[in-house]
Amino acid sequence: MPADDPGAANGSDGGAVSGVPTGPKLITTRFDQADGYTYDGYVRSGGYEALRRALTAMTPDAVHDQVKTSEIQGRGGAGFPAGVKWGFLPDGVFPRYIVVNGDESEPGTYKDRMLMELDPHQLIEGVVLASYAVGAAQAFLYVRGEMALAQERIAQALNDAYANNLVGTNILGTDFSVDIHLSWGAGAYIVGEETALIESLEGERGMPRLKPPFFPAAKGLYLQPTIVNNVETLSNLPWIINHSGQDFYDLASPTSTGMRMFAVSGHVNAPGVFEVPNGTTTFRDLVEAPEYCGGVRNGRSVKAFIPGGASAIWFFPEHLDLPLDKATVDQAGSMLGSGAIVVMDDTTDMVAACWRVVRFFARESCGKCTPCREGTTWLERILKRMLDGNGRPEDLATLVDVCESISPGLAWPPKQTTICPLGPSAVSPIVSAVERFRHEFDHYVEHGRPIDGVERHAIHGTSGVAVHV
Amino acid sequence: MSESTDDTQASDADEDVSADDVDAAVDEEVTEEPEPEDDSIKLIIDGVERRVDPGGLVIDACNEHGSYVPHFCYHPRMSPVGMCRQCLVEVEGPRGTMTVVSCMTPTADGQVVNTATPAVKRAQEGVLELLLANHPLDCPVCDKGGECPLQDQAFSHGPGESRYVEQKRHYEKPIPISDLVYLDRERCILCDRCTRFADEVAGDKLIHFVSRGNNTQVMTFPDEPFVSYFSGNTVQICPVGALTAKPYRFKARPWDLDQVESTCMGCAVGCRIVVQASRDEVIRYQGVDSDAVNWGWMCDRGRFNFEALNSDQRLSEPMIRTESGLTPTTWNIALDAAAGVLRDALATPESVGVLGGSRGTNEDAYAWAQLADVMGSSYRDAQVGDGLPTGILGYPRATINEAANASTIVLMGPDLKEELGVLYLRLRDAAEKRRSRILEFSATETGLTPYAWKSIRHEPGAQSAAVAAALSDEAIADQLAAGPVVIVAGRGNLAESPDAVIAAVDALFDAVPEATVLPALRRGNVNGALLMGMAPADDEHDALATLQAASEGRLDVLILVGSDPLSDCPDADLARRAIAGVARVISVDTHPTASTQRADVVLPASSFAEKSGTTTNLEGRVTDVNQKVTATGTSRPDWMIALDLGVRLGERSFPSDHPLRGAATVDDVTEIVASTVEGFAGASHTEVKNTVDGVVVPAHVPRATSAGFSPPPRNNYDYRLVISRKLFDDATGTQMSRSLANLAPGGGLYLNPLDVAQLGVEVGDDVTVTSAQSTVVINVAGDERVPRGIAWSPFNQAGASVGDIVDAGAGVTDVRIERAG
Amino acid sequence: MSRLSDHHVIVANDIIARCPRPKSALIPVLHLAQEQDGYVSTDAMEHIAELIGITPAEVYGTASFYEMFKFEPVGKYCINVCTNISCQLLGAWELLEHAEERLGIKSGSTTTDGMFTIEDVECIAACTEAPALQVNYRYRYRVTNEDFDALVDDLRNGALDDEIPPHGTLARVRQTTPDNWADTGRRAQEAVDAR
Ligand SMILES: Cc1cc2nc3c(=O)[nH]c(=O)nc-3n(C[C@H](O)[C@H](O)[C@H](O)COP(=O)(O)O)c2cc1C
Ligand code: SF4
Ligand code: FES
Q1: Does a structural domain hold residue C176?
Q2: Ligand 1 centre from B375 Cα, in Å?
Q3: How many structural domains are present in chain C?
Q4: Residues C95, C144: one domain?
Q5: Which residues line ligand 1 (CB under 6 A)?
Q6: What CATH number is given for A350-460 in this structure?
Q7: Percent of chain B whose pLDDT exceeds 70
Q8: Superfamily assignment of A27-248 in CATH?
Q9: pLDDT at B160
Q10: Residue A121's CB: how many other CB atoms inside 10 A?
Q11: Shortest Cα distance, chain A CAs vs residue B665, angstroms
């Protein structure tokens, strides 16, 4: 069993073996450097040069301009261009805040944790750059509660960065000052949603706020203007400043710029996290190329795959050749989301897979909106009953109908009767699976067991988490 | 005037007896579309063009214009949370048609809103089905059944039947979350109304959502109950039967309830309420949303003291004293006895005193004042030495709304949270919403201290000096100059001279001449009674002077009209000597009190809800009070008793041309008041009956004068005493209400913990407290809100008679505290 | 059980002082309480309410939203088996079943000796290393039944004491407030909040 050391990204630093697109590593360069996470290791490998350059030779607007030019899309899920988002801050309203979203919990997603554990200074440098660009008074780095090592490494890195005058008062002798406060969660997926994250940072229950009126850029933390960015998004800033926004833009396709990290898990031979050219690499490249996952396990074939985290509509073999391009994937009816690809081979029990994803959302609903609080649990119960062999013929209709109450029209992008997209996310696996694999559901209802040829899981009535209220 | 309407049920308001978020009368009053005002905006709601004021929410615009939008979490007096998702409507916007929650969507000019498209109906049905999925559907045994927004909307906007066959949520139920409120978590639909109320409105964040997702519940902290003076409001605004009030549980079904709109007379705020009765018994009050006064809220004392009306201790027949004590008799005999006593006394001038009137209506007080006039009695007062001189009504007066919108609210007097609960809510709101800054002068910390911009502590009696010091502070002077200033003035300390307050108010007026005053006298209709003629002409004839005269044997008869000096006069010794020293006592009351025990004639008065009339609140707002149930026993309204007596006094009877001679009904008296009492011309019966908010009348009394007041110097060894009221005390209305009786904290002497330590005593020990007047033994408690060198004790509590050590004649009360025994 | 120790009060006040509003320190301070006692006791919540200036009900309201906070004692080692989709596909339920058998308890409960609690949890961001678990939030990747047994033995005999602290302790390195803490955020926010 590999011990608790974060696996390095199996990056494609060698030449192209199978003709897949290649590019430089931007943010995973220190993943193989044993001391890359330390202050010395970071500085030795060129760290904090971007910050020095920005603070001494660039105006805040110039930094912002580079980010705009790069057209870097947010890596947290929504894919909104960071430069544009920063531009939404209202003029002259202070204090304003930067909030770093390190709550990574979307099923399948695994990259922010690596960035925090293996290269915390890179993130800190990115945060100070962003704070400089927008004039933030303080930044909050919110790390998921369950990530003890990431918290430890960031705490150490922050203490070292302060000691070396890279954060805090008069950074590097300039008159720019900003603090970074490390905060962390305590186990709640919804806190990844930016307004819920803000609530959590305010010491509240992590329940999302309605947008509008609570767009963070206008009314965020303490109702002050606030920028929430993902860890991966901000980790790219040092590279962008060291090179240029244009260099970043030129790396991949014009609709999805730069390099991007993808985690590929599930039924593949060599699951892993890869930093690949955004927009040009295809799903098939990731799944099949020897530099990446090296194909589906046991020589089997893809039955379905989740292209962008548990909230995404599922894709099928015919989608494998789509490029990892936001516009293309949106067009095809799903999303790249948080860069989480989960591959299911032809032995997968689709009802069980669907249930598992729904169960996640049911368990993680914050409880604020009636449709999500009541609906997701209802969906989960029906599916579980089917898995237990107690499905009824009318269940499938009820299932779809309850989905409709949460996400009217079952369209993509989803409409919602809820405040945030969590509720509708529970609808994604159901519409995906029921549409394509209806016979598997019918078979459960009729025979109380899955169709032949799929793997059964030892799912049992679990009580979830210990000693909760 | 309409009866109250439930905000969730505008469509069939007539049958609806719930007063949930009542916005009475307003709907019906405005029957046609208001004329477009200059700044109004246009909305197309369900295809019809409507004009609304800008700055509102779509939900209100729809509901005001007949397109009813179902909702649960939205409450017009709290910030919207968009939680239940029931109020979904379609709004056409630049990005196409959007389904949005109308409770959080601001209106905009030209907005197109649809509330009844198939998509909206589908969405609303879906939400309702989901709300009902885990609901126990135990309507037949639920207090709310019949007036339940969930039930009603399931009927009007629901899918008809549930397909939910899974196991429902189960919780232990119902659980008491306080002395007055039970919680049934299975019925709860998590609308956040009660929790928001506790947080936003009351500031008592003692109930909260706990756990997450499908397990979310409303709960208190383990072993820390929802102790709030305003807990009953959560029951009223709960849109299901999750919160129920102990005093009402299982008492009635809503469809058996009859109701009438009225005004709570529990204190001088005068909250608008509906009085609900079943089988001729009052069983519930609900707050009505009066924009000017209470916004739908009530305090628990006002809400639940209806129990006292039904108390089996009520005085139900007249009594006269015989050898065997107080003996029931007929009205004729009792009235003749009383009249005989008075006729004898009236042979000597100024030998009859009349105290009271503030418990009854304006009409009651008016009739008694008229009787005092014809008897030539100058000794009269609506207070018992526990308020301020009548001249406090003579300053330029502020309304509650003016206070709650002033740039500065100066607090000079009682702890409003304890004495005038809903005024506390309104002023707290003003501070929390940053409309106003509170500048507080007080001897100890009060309920509003946490919300005060500046809270200035002064020694008892030293408020003038504190004002002078404050005025020399630049920040305070700037603030007072920044905009309207309202001074809320009342009697914060019963162990100190009221002159201390008047002197401080005058000092403020010298600096801010354009300030206005909101008098914070506490008793129900004290303002009305004073204006009706129950105000003493001068210091020589006020309540204390009356009691003094009685104690010296100068009075032959003392008439107590709902007044109990033995409990309410701060100088307990004076009250006792007075009651002992006067030859005869005639008591007109609803319940037996310490003073009725001493009476020679007891005349039973009808209580609130048993009689009609008008009342005047602390702003001078005259509103109506209405009868809902038959009077107890043979009791009569006070005004009628005055009239009955007033015709039996021989040559001192009401003259034949006296207007009251012709009064047959209370409405006649209301008209007489309107036509004869200066300032009340606008408060005629028709004017008052047609408005929820009533009519504000001016007070024609001379402004109080203070010759300045400064407290005597103090001796380091002594503590200076503060005696003030708590919301719950030994008052009759509270003690006769089963559910409230135990909420009175009981007597005690509260000292700063450092002083407790310095005295070498432990909390809970008995100490002797010695003033120039007397000595009492009392239990000591530590309280950080009491500054060092000050001793605070709650007034009129069981177990300690702190009144014994107060000398009404002294400016302040200094006491020596020693370990007892 | 207990209020925060003097040392933890110092740490808590340091965190509170860094926050523009005191309540922002609530979750980190709750973690301190859990670090001290292994769970968040009622007394600790009352103490935290005092330190931050809110009601205990507010503390509890926030704390109970988050799954990591326990309000009753759990095992010294909390073993969280991820059963979410990537792990389910690669045998997480079978691993959980083995764990339950091996420890003789159901998921969600604690062994009678107070050593182990098992939970089945949602995705822990180790999807490419499925099936994965955490012991007191320290990762173990691609766990087989044999790995699990060895893990339990090592935990019991103390072989992992250095690596894995008892339940409640997360990061063993804390951010401290340095001399060059700029404090502009807190001061600016306080100015905005001042009435
Ligand atoms: C239910 C939900 C969960 C989310 N979880 C995360 C998360 O764990 N990490 C993250 O960075 N963004 C998450 N997001 C997206 C954030 O709301 C936000 O868009 C993002 O942090 C913005 O950063 P970016 O612009 O750099 O991508 C989530 C959104 C939703 C609706
Ligand atoms: S959709 Fe679900 S998770 Fe999102 S705010 Fe509503 S209840 Fe909470
Ligand atoms: S009333 Fe609008 S969401 Fe509840």
Answers
A1: no
A2: 82
A3: 2
A4: yes
A5: A 74-78, 80, 82, 101, 103-106, 190, 192-194, 228-230, 233, 420-422
A6: 1.20.1440.230
A7: 95
A8: NADH-ubiquinone oxidoreductase 51kDa subunit (3.40.50.11540)
A9: 65
A10: 27
A11: 54
**What pLDDT score does B94 carry?**
78
Please give the Cα distance from A59 to B249 (Å, whole number): 68
pLDDT band for position B256 (50/70/90)? confident
Report the C-alpha gap between C86 and B677 in whole angstroms.
Answer: 84
Residue C127 domain boundaries = 77-156
How many angstroms does the Cα of residue A418 sit away from the middle of ligand 1? 17
Q: Is residue C131 part of a domain?
A: yes
- What's the per-residue H, E or C state across chain A? CCCCCCCCCCCCCCCCCCCCCCCCCCCCHHHHCCCCCCHHHHHHCCCCHHHHHHHHHCCHHHHHHHHHHHCCECCCCCCCEHHHHHHCCCCCCCCCEEEEEECCCCCCCCCHHHHHHHCHHHHHHHHHHHHHHHCCCEEEEEECCCCHHHHHHHHHHHHHHHHCCCCECCHHHCCCCEEEEEEECCCCHHHHCHHHHHHHHCCCCCCCCCCCCCCCCCCCHHHCCEEEEEHHHHHCHHHHHHCCHHHHHHCCECCECCEEEEEEEECECCCEEEEEECCCCEHHHHHHCCCCCCCEHHHCCEEEEECCCCCCCCECHHHCCCECCHHHHHHCCCCCCCCEEEEEECCCCHHHHHHHHHHHHHHHCCCCCHHHHHHHHHHHHHHHHHHCCCCCCCHHHHHHHHHHHHCHHHCCCCCCCCCCCHHHHCHHHHHHHHHHCHHHHHHHHHHCCCCCCCCCCCCCCCCCCCCCC
- Atom in ligand 2 nearest the alpha carbon of residue A416: 1
Whole-angstrom distance, CA of residue C74 vs CA of residue C77: 8
The CATH architecture of the domain made up of A251-345 is Roll (3.10)
Is C169 part of any domain?
no
- CATH at residue C127: 3.40.30.10
- Are residues C56 and C89 located together in one domain of the fold? no
Q: Where are the beta strands (DSSP E) in B395-453?
A: 408-412, 437-442
Contacts of A156 in chain C (CB under 8 A): 173
Judged by its nearest atom, the ligand closest to the C-alpha of residue A192 is 1
The reply to whether C25 and C92 lie within a common domain is: no
Domain's final residue, options C12, C45, C73: C73
* A156 and C CB contact within 8 Å: yes
Please tell me whether residues C137 and C149 are part of one structural domain: yes
Domains parsed from chain B with CATH numbers? 3-133 (3.10.20.740), 163-308 (3.30.70.20), 319-387+525-696 (3.40.50.740), 396-519 (3.40.228.10), 719-819 (2.40.40.20)
Name the residue with tokens 């190329």: A289
Sign (positive or negative) of CA dihedral C85, C88, C92, C96: positive
Chains that touch B (3 or more CB pairs under 8 A): A, C
**Lowest-pLDDT range of B12-26, B605-619, C155-169:** B12-26
**pLDDT at res. C195:** 62
Atom of ligand 3 nearest to the CA of B87: 2
What residue ranges do the domains of chain A occupy?
27-248, 251-345, 350-460
**Structural domain ending residue among the three candidates C21, C50, C73:** C73
Calculate the average pLDDT of chain B.
92
CB C44 within 8 A of CB C37: yes
Contact A306 C24 (CB under 8 A): no
Q: How far is the CA of B235 from the centre of ligand 3 (A)?
A: 19
State whether C14 and C32 are in the same domain: yes
Task: Classify residue C180: in a domain, yes or no.
Answer: no
**CB C124, CB C82: distance < 8 Å:** yes
Question: In B613-760, which ranges are continuous DSSP H helix?
Answer: 638-646, 666-676, 685-689, 732-735, 738-741, 753-759
Q: What is the pLDDT of residues B164-211, one digit of tens each?
A: 989 899 999 999 999 999 999 999 999 999 999 999 999 999 999 999
